[in-house]
Structures are given as C-alpha cells and as structure tokens.
Amino acid sequence: MKALFVAIAAAGVLALDPAVVAAQGRGRPNLPPGAGDDATPGVTPAEIQRMFDAYALLQAQEQLKIGDDQFTKFLTRFKDLQQVRRQTLNERGRIINMLRRMLNQGASEDDLKARLNELHELDARAAADIKKAYDAINQVLDVQQQAKFRVFEELMERRKLELVMRARQANRPRL
Predict the structure, then answer these.
(1) What is the pTM of this model?
(2) What does the pLDDT look like over 97-139, one tens digit per residue?
(3) SS3 sequence, the chain?
C-alpha cells in the first residue's frame, strides 16, 4: 500500500511542476477548447488537490515517523480533516459570492444580514468540525507526533503556495 502512495505522490509532484505542466500542453488552462495547437485537457483543480493530498500524506508519514500500524488510522483521519477543510472552503466561497452578487444588485439589509448569519453559522460549525477532526487525529498520534503534525501542516501550506506561485509565473505570457 505504501508503494502505491509513493507512486501517486511522485505523479502529483511532477504534475505540479510548471515545467512538466507546460511540456504536457497544460500550461494554458484559460484557452477555449480548440484554441491551442493541441486538445490535451488541463489538470483540474480537484486532480491537483488529490495529488497534493497524496503527497502530503506521504510526507506526513515520513516527517511524523508514523509506523505501518498507525498509518491506516492516520490515513482515514487525515483525509477526514482535509475533507472538512475543503467543504468549508467551498461553502464559504459560495456564501461570499452570494454576498457579492447581493451587494451588486442592491439587496436589502435583511437579506444581507441573513447571508452574514449563514456565514457566521458556517464558521462556528467549521471550527467545531475541525476540532473534532484534530481530536480524532490526536487519538492516533503521540504528543511528539501531534506537535510535529502542526508544524508539518504549516510547511505543507507554504509548499502549496510556492507551487501555485511557480505555476503562475510559468504560465505568464512572454513579451
């Protein structure tokens, strides 16, 4: 099972490398279909996220020194945490976009207040769900691993931002 994750992670890292993306004809995601000289579809954000999650999982196992006996439990709980975050981010984006449209259309204060309350409720629910997911992860990890996991998460977030910036720079039109 570990070998499968290594293969997925390697593919994910390569797929996120701007040079590989450009070489595969995927460096122009904003072109309409048929506008380029090849019809290769780009990597979807969901595919990139799945690849990055697989890469992060392998890195977590290595960084936290998670044994094979812990790995299965950690895997499901780590995925649950990622899913909670992803769902929250999507729902938050939906509400913010709705607020933007409502503001542009001159919505009433009552309607805006209702959306703001929805956002507030989402934030409260998300905090509780994320705490629950962390508690589940903490049941699998010892204290040392828990601390390393928090540091690891921050490093992975920075790595993700770095990859996004590199991809954007690689996709800029050349003058």
Answers:
(1) 0.68
(2) 999 999 999 999 999 999 999 999 999 999 999 999 999 999 9
(3) CHHHHHHHHHHHHHHHCHHHHHHCCCCCCCCCCCCCCCCCCCCCHHHHHHHHHHHHHHHHHHHHCCCHHHHHHHHHHHHHHHHHHHHHHHHHHHHHHHHHHHHHCCCCHHHHHHHHHHHHHHHHHHHHHHHHHHHHHHHHCCHHHHHHHHHHHHHHHHHHHHHHHHHHHHHCCCC
